[in-house]
Amino acid sequence: MSKPTFYITTPIYYPSDKLHIGHTYCTVATDAIARYKRLTGYDVMFLTGTDEHGQKIEEKAKEAGVTPQEFVDRIVTGKCGILDLWKLMNISNDRFIRTTDDYHVTSIQRIFRKMYDNGDIYKGAYKGKYCTPCESFWTESQLVDGKCPDCGRPVHDAEEEAYFFRLSKYAKPVQELLESGEFLKPASRVNEMINNFIKPGLEDLCVSRTSFTWGIPVDFDPGHVVYVWVDALFNYATAMGYMNERYDDYARYWPPVNIVGKEIVRFHSIIWPAMLMSVGEPVPKQVYGHGWLVIDGGKMSKSKGNVVDPYVLAEKFGVDALRFFLLRTFPFGSDGNFSNELLINTINTDLANSLGNLVSRTTAMIEKYFGGTLIPEREAEAMDEELVEMIRGTAEKYAAQMDAFQLHLGLEEVFRLIQRANKYIDETAPWVLGRDETKKARLATVLYNLLEALRVSLILLTPFIPESCDKAFVQIGAEREARTWAAASEYGVLPADVSVRKGETLFPRIDTAKMLEELEKLHQTAKKPESKPVLPDVTIDEFARCDMRVCKILRCEAVKKSEKLLKFALDDGSGTERQILSGIHKFYEPEDLVGKKAVAILNLPPRKMMGMESNGMLLSAVKEIDGKEVLHLMLVDDDVPVGSQLC
Ligand code: ME8
């Protein structure tokens, strides 16, 4: 009989930066679910990947002076990149999709055309506020004081040709789907979607862009690239072979369970099913919106400098300990506050004390009293019954939680059994039994029961800490057939004369104070500001064409109605005054600058700002420190003559 299938996915992450512990959390959780499903007999397809197109990546690549493809290649396949991270974290994905893969690009073009042909995508006009110098569209709410948020200049109403998806047409079926109860989990997210997005009215979605090129071209209208979310969402289908010849697994695995972070639930539970309805394909079995890992209650972000590097944690604590911590501590549907103290406490309490000790004490006693191999004689007592019942019953309770993706509660069931077994040691006092030759059969029974409790616990822990479980199975003498799902609800699976093998300590106890100090040191080193990569070469002639001279600041005043701009009157040595506008009011007050000598580039084309002309630009030294931009105007000593040229 063929196995039932189960298809599960993570979001495809943006390779715009290194991934952090938040991405790792989602991938490890999805991995644990995939492993659990395999354990319980499913034919599992587990997909993860990267979302490689879009304006942000295009800009990042430009900043780094490389092509967008080179940029993403480095982050995805480079050393300590995304593929390396998933290998390190022991992620068991069956497939990895990159949205720059040829087959995906072809499929997206076919999908876009299909929706165009069926009338769900149409050409219209994107209306917004346009800043001509910045070539950017803004919405009303993005404007600052009614002006361009980037440069402070006036914007005007503009229209751009764009393609739209008829999202409005699907408002009703999507609402019904959301209300069906099974589609979007946890249930708390359903009302949020209906009240915040469906009830106010779903507008058609702009699904093409012409303002940048790093995307999948609309093949029948080449100036347009497909909106990155259309490109990204369909990855779950194209990776199975939908609309391409590269794979042939769509019929077997579709529809998927999509695990996503809460901030992208809207895309996955409204836009995604609507587009699937449009192309006539089944919607996901479930979209599960997990919570965020936060630090001190706030979101992790590069600019705050509080992102946590999974490589560092895995190296310091071990991959399994890190995986375990993430899934044991935080309820999957809610936010969780990450801290190193919590990480260390969890490892010490659960892994070193409860589980690690149970393995080492049990195997050490079997070595000590039986030379490593139990005698087959038994002598049961009534006090064994509760433990034996838990050995038989824990898997079922665990499965109920795991099936609902309540991973922390699944683990809770396992640790209830482990704690019960530890208590059983105190109750039966094997060290007392060991002193009495007539109690050998009783002692063997106690130790056998402990091994059985461990065996079942380890089967159930395998999805979370696979490598450690493999090692522990060897230590307790559990062969392959004693590690199966069926064997997880049985008592008496290990042979009566089982042999144990002492091994390495699975989870050494961590010295909290020492470790925190080490981590703090690492954090300080990591906080050292990163320098930006050097830009591509310019020739000496190109450099010489920049006319930079020392100018004296004659007058300086703040520009009315602008928070940023200062207006300078400068003596550049030519005999006529030069006017330059500069957005540095955040860093200087006008009176601090009058009389000083600064450096300006004079031969930039004149530019209008807030209706005034700026003839050149004052040079500043700029750096991001602790996520904040620090700016210093390039001031020179008073004895440098006005008009001196930089060369
Ligand atoms: O949104 N805590 O990619 P992304 C928990 N490319 N999870 C976190 C997290 C945190 N602090 N930070 C990130 C994208 N995540 C799109 C997805 S899918 C068709 C396209 C996890 O790189 C979480 O799962 O910003 C979140 O949804 C995902 O990373 C976002 O990754």
Task: Walk me through what this model shows.
By secondary structure, this protein is α/β, with parallel strands linked by helices. Among the domains are: 339-489, Orthogonal Bundle (Isoleucyl-tRNA Synthetase, Domain 1), CATH 1.10.730.10; 540-636, Nucleic acid-binding proteins (OB fold (Dihydrolipoamide Acetyltransferase, E2P), Beta Barrel), CATH 2.40.50.140. 41% of the residues lie in helices and 19% in strands. The protein has 22 helices and 25 strands. The strands form seven sheets. A six-stranded parallel β-sheet has the order 3-2-1-11-12-7, with helices on both faces. Strands 16, 17, 18, 19, 22 and 25 form a six-stranded antiparallel β-sheet that branches. A hairpin with a 2-residue loop joins strand 20 and strand 21. It is globular, with a radius of gyration of 32 Å. The model has no long low-confidence stretch (mean pLDDT 94). The structure holds ligand ME8. Residues 11-14, 22-23, 25-26, 51, 232-233, 235, 260-261, 263-264, 292-293, 300 line the site of ligand ME8.
Number of helices: 22
CATH architectural arrangement of the domain at 339-489: Orthogonal Bundle
Q: Name the CATH class of the domain at 339-489.
A: Mainly Alpha
Classification by helices and strands: alpha/beta
Q: Overall 3D geometry?
A: globular
Mean pLDDT: 94
